[in-house]
Amino acid sequence: MTNRLLDLPITPHDFVGQIMEPALDLLPARMGSIEARVMLLAIALQESGLAHRWQVVDLRRPAIKGPARGLMQFEKGGGVKGVLTHAASRDYAADVCLARGVVAAPAQVYDALDQDDVLAVALGRLLLWTDPRALPAADDVLGGWNLYQRVWRPGKPHPEKWAGNHAVARAALGAA
């Protein structure tokens, strides 16, 4: 397991090549569709701006950690618990944790998320996997927004940023 962290902020290109690709390599190939890739990058841009590995609740004090962790901004009782316990994702999550050297338990996974970007993104893909609906087409901005809202359930969703983040994701992945 390589756990070298890139200095933040990172570019969408670095996210895709150095984090998302290794994360998707830990999962079945069918989880690596262009639709999934666009969603993962758009959500990472929406959630962390590829600039923070923990939720920044006060921009004047960015070292104070809010409840969400990792580039995908998972909370312990939300996304972390969800992927570790959901019938559609729990076995894959256990395999990812094993590959990344993390005990597949909420506290341990949560503590690792701001230290392991690959783990965070692999679990992000698994959270999308728990949604029973098909992923929206790569160019379906509204469908992507609806999926993000449904699965991430952001407390402060910032809809005004979504279309731009989605466009950046599509462009970075050649799906524009």
- What is the gyration radius calculated from CA atoms? 15 Å
**Helix tally?**
8
Determine the structural class based on helices, strands and strand pairing: mainly alpha
Return the average pLDDT rounded to an integer: 95
Give, in order, the helices and strands: HHEEEHHHHHH
Helicity, as a percent range:
40-55%
* Sequence stretches where pLDDT stays below 50 over 5 or more residues: none
The overall number of domains is 1
How many strands in all?
A: 3
* Gap between N and C termini: 33 Å
How much β-strand is present in the residues?
A: 5-15%
Largest sheet: 3 strands, antiparallel
Query: Judging from the principal axes of the Cα atoms, what is the shape?
Result: globular
Strands of the widest sheet, in order across it, are 1-2-3
Topology:
Elements: H1 12-25, H2 34-47, E1 54-56, E2 65-69, E3 74-75, H3 76-85, H4 90-100, H5 106-112, H6 117-129, H7 141-152, H8 159-172
Antiparallel strand pairs: 1-2, 2-3
Helix pairs in contact: 1-2, 1-6, 2-8, 3-4, 3-5, 3-6, 4-6, 7-8
